[in-house]
Structure formats: structure tokens, C-alpha cells
Amino acid sequence: MIGSLLYLTTSRPDIMFNIFLCARFQAEPKESHLTAVKRIFRYLLGTQSLGIWYPRHSTSFEIIGFSDSDFTGCKVDRKSSSGTCQFIGQSLVSWSSRKQNSVALSTTEAEYIALGSCVAQVL
Predict the structure, then answer these.
(1) 3-class SS at 54?
(2) Would you call 70 exposed, middle or buried from its count of C-beta atoms within 10 A (0-12, 13-18, 19+)?
(3) Domain of life, per the record (predicted)?
(4) Total structural domains in the chain?
(5) pLDDT, mean of residues 91-114
(6) Would you give the distance in Å from CA 108 to the centre of its chain?
(7) Does position 85 have pLDDT exceeding 80, yes or no?
(8) Same structural domain for residues 68 and 20?
(9) The pLDDT of residue 42
């Protein structure tokens, strides 16, 4: 079940976090994990009209990137989390969300690290 849900994350990034969370417990699944997977399927059934659509005839090939981060979001190691997304025209082509490798000493530094990650993905 997790494999088929992982395939869906290409057009439904809103379920990515929950699927990866369930995938961590594939070696020793419990009843609660099956309940969570069933809940994801019910959510997908109720939101079939949502998703990322790529138009066939797009006139704009402008590359646009967005980035954001929090400051010391992880309470354990005080690392920030970064999120980036890149568009070609109006179509989303790449996105990421991950914990930063280093500890930022200010909000500005955390944003700068996120921006660097976004630019690296565009290049």
C-alpha cells in the first residue's frame, strides 16, 4: 500500500509527509499504522479533484523559485527546517522540505540557507 501511495506523491504533494511517516514503520507495522494508511486513502477519495496539473500548451517558461524556513524548529538539536518549490511557468516541477544541515544563529541566516538551497535546485 505504501508503494502505491509513494507513486501518488508526484501529483499530490499534500500527502507526502504522512506517507513518509507511515513508511518508517514498514518493518514492524502496528494496527495504528494501518489505520493511518486507511485514513490517507479516505482523504484521497474525498479530494480526487485536487492535485498538480501540467498544461499541454504553456506559453511561459519563466523559472520561479520560492523558499521559506523556520528558526530553530527542532527542539532537540535546534536546527531549522527549510522548504523550497520551483515553478516553470505556472507548473510546479520541484519541491523539497528538510531539516538544515547546520544550526542557524539568526532568522536571517536560516532564510539565507533556505535561499541557497532553492537556488542550487534551480541551477
Answers:
(1) coil
(2) middle
(3) Eukaryota
(4) 2
(5) 86
(6) 22
(7) yes
(8) no
(9) 92
Q: Which range marks the domain in which residue 11 is found?
A: 2-46
pTM (global) more than 0.70: no
Bridge partners for 76 per DSSP: none
Q: Looking at the domain assignment, is residue 115 inside a domain? A: yes
* Mean of per-residue pLDDT scores for the chain: 85
Q: Which amino acid is at 86?
A: Q
Residue 58 lies in a domain: no
- 67 with 118, same domain: the answer is yes
Domain match, 37 and 75 both: no
Does residue 68 form part of some domain?
yes
Q: Is residue 57 part of a domain?
A: no
67 in the same domain as 116: yes
Task: Quick: pLDDT tens for 34-71.
Answer: 898 899 999 989 988 877 777 777 677 888 999 988 88
Instruction: For residues 86-110, give the mean pLDDT.
Output: 86
Q: What is the CA radius of gyration of the chain?
A: 17
Instruction: Kindly report each contact of residues 52-56 with a partner whose C-beta sits within 8 Å and lies 24 or more positions away, as own/partner.
Output: 52/10, 52/11, 52/12, 52/13, 52/91, 52/92, 53/91, 54/91, 55/90, 55/91
